[in-house]
Write a structure and sequence with these properties.
The complex is a heterodimer of chains A (210) and B (224).
Chain A (H helix, E strand, L loop, with lengths): L31 H17 L6 E6 L18 E6 L5 E5 L10 E3 L4 H14 L5 H12 L15 E6 L5 H13 L4 E4 L4 H14 L3
Parallel strand pairs in A: 2-5, 5-6
Antiparallel strand pairs in A: 2-3, 3-4
Chain B lengths: L15 H17 L14 E2 L10 E6 L5 E6 L5 H18 L5 H9 L7 H9 L2 H6 L7 E2 L2 E2 L1 H11 L6 E6 L5 H13 L4 E8 L7 H7 L7
Parallel strand pairs in B: 1-7, 2-6, 6-7
Antiparallel strand pairs in B: 2-3, 4-5
The chains are: A alpha/beta (210), B alpha/beta (224).
Amino acid sequence: MADIDVSGGDSGHKKGPGVKKAKKLSTRVDMTPMVDLGFLLITFFIFTTTMSTPSTMKLFMPKDEKDQKDLTEVKQSGALTILLGKDNGIYYYEGQLESDGSNFKSSTYKEIRDEIIKKKKEVIAAHYHSPACDKLQKDAQDKGDPDWKDACKDKDFVVIIKPNKEATYKNTVDILDEMTINQVKRFALVDITQDENSLVKATEQSNGVQ
Amino acid sequence: MPSVKIPRKSTFTDMTPFVDVAFLILSFFMLATKFKPPAPIEITTPKSVSSEKLKEQDAVLIEFDSTGKVYFTMNTKTQQESDKQLKRDLITEVNKNRNLGLTEREIQSFTNYSTVGSPFSELKTLLDLPQDQRKTVKQKGIPVDSANNELTTWIGAAKVAFQGRQMFYMLKGDNKAKYPSFKGVIDAMKANEEFKYKLITDPKTVPYGTDLYTKRESGKADEE
């Protein structure tokens, strides 16, 4: 089936007339149907298979503190607030939001990493040793961290993540992932405030996001 | 005049190596394949750099799809009777807390297939359906808004059922799901004093040059 007979039928006449030749049967097996079947099965398994097993990402949420005095305080100099909006919109500001919104900036999911890294470096550069650091350093040393001396340097760096109602789950996970990628040790998932939300809405409108 | 003879070549191709490779690939796929479990809910999970593998164990799986409908599933390690008892404990607890008045048959239906995505008002009707219909029927999703967060009851009941056993909360959300449904799920957990979750994601590679990249390169294990 897979070959065309081209032998022409004149083989074996060299032996001369009268010599009876034994009829040789070919040992070749036509493999075409087998290949057909093989590939059919391959296609079937390729389509039904799930290759990548899903991974899990850990998320620890803090308790909701009812008492105002139990709330964690964040140093203004080390805070970076990231706001997530509609249509993969991402906005951020450093420290506290100015009342006129002058430090409110837009970004993208690609560029936000640079902002986080920049801010982290800034906080580390501004770090000075305080008694509170000793405990953190000791903890890291106990854990066997070779860089335990640096354990305290970014202690004031806190990223506050505030998704609004229009942000998707993917946006939230992406930004949480960004925390892992940049080794941000302190971050919080917080509800967006009214003021921030209206600022995000206003920016979206001026940018023409539907 | 001598005629030039063109040697006729056989068109027969030896297919043996071809077959060898084909069957090698075939056996690879047959061994590596893991059939997709029948998923009643279509969910495309987001990606993360997390390297921890998902383990099938005692867990409460909370799924939310692209429209924000929330589904609750109870996974147990095995399908044995003792584990079915856990599911029975859970549904009995829910039944008691919410006065649903479920019959024995409906409780049995839940123990056999524990994925639920209906508000309590429709739970009885849902559990009355035969199992294969339950998998295909359109459900409204468990309400998770702050006014009526029914998932809180489910998680509370799961806590009671899994008492004394190690269990996990797994969250599986669709890319397109909006943040409020995620928040609703988290709120339901928080109301039950549960603060540790595992988000199910697809793996992705760590971007080059980032802090995590340097850390993984240096061979340090990920922080717990």
